[in-house]
Amino acid sequence: QGQLAESGGGSVQAEGSLRLSCAVSAYLRIAWCLGWFRQAQGKEREAVVTINDHGITTYAVVVKGRFTISKDVAESILYLQMNSLKLEDTAMYYCASGWSCEYSHFNHWGQGTQVTVSA
Length: 119
Prior knowledge:
mainly beta
């Protein structure tokens, strides 16, 4: 059975960059939608960006222009390039797969990787 495994998190100063990776294995072949989500301490989990099977992306307004999602189908890896990071981007970041890009339809989740942005 496939797994979702995030990596690439860490600590970075504001305006810096990080690239998150998610090994999606078998799910990349069958999932209609993949996405990155985040949950800051004391807040609800929110969608950062999703990409469907046709390559159509939907970004949260707060990250648009700074974050870029991509996927390497051959390697079965989902990426999130994060540039111009802000303090408010600090959160646990999760990758997920689902049968549609509706939030409630994401039914497989990774364990998460922490991103901490400091001044």
